[in-house]
Amino acid sequence: MLWDASVMKGYAIEANDGRLGTVSDFLFEDTAWMVRWLIVDTGHWLPGRKVLLPPSVLGHPDRQSRRCPVELTMRQVRDSPVIDTDRPVSRQIESYVHEYYGWSPYWLNTVAAPVVAPVDPLRSLSLELIRVRPQSEHGNPHLRSVAVVTGYHIHATDGEIGHLEDFLLDEADWSIPYLVVDPRNWWPGGHILMSPRTVREIEWVDRSIQLSISRQQVKAGPAYDPSKIPDRANESLILKHYRRDV
Questions:
Q1: For a surface tag, which of 117, 199, 211, 214 has the fewest beta carbons within 10 Å of its beta carbon?
Q2: CATH code of the domain covering residue 137
Q3: How far is the first Cα of the chain from the last one, in angstroms, to the nearest whole number?
């Protein structure tokens, strides 16, 4: 099932023994176009703190209750490394979180599996040291925030086409099969679905997305209807339109 990233923002994250907080943002990798982390705002439970959780721990989101279960306990999350999610997230920081939970890093192409909270006092001490280490000023250059990139101006090969309105996320593997484009700055039409494989570069300095296709190709793309979110079976048609291999 596909989900609008904007719709999932604010969903409650429910641990096995209580509510952890709400979805604040998603971090995605712009090379694989995969969601790698959820940023969860813990609210009043852990005031002023946000935590990183991989999508592999998520259960099925409930659209009616706006909730999503995770296979974790509140203690596991409470004792996890304290991370400043408002600063760039480096590969080293990602490794700290993976190490704490006992998960295999996604860049090793293995399946992540949650384990029980650490009880070894020596290991717990090392995690306390992680909390006070200064974070790197340089994050993973391919790890980007959905909230930040949303709104970026989109430039085709022959000029600007509009801006990025939203991301569609596939619950099956938390990939990003579609981007939602608002072309009204250039053409007074409806929203358009676009394959992320047409993205050539994302530039944070001028808040822009550079494409490898023309404005006409984007304009002729499939229209986006929020009430009829496409499924992955339609992806080959969209990729065919943009002349990309499946």
A1: 214
A2: 3.90.50.10
A3: 19
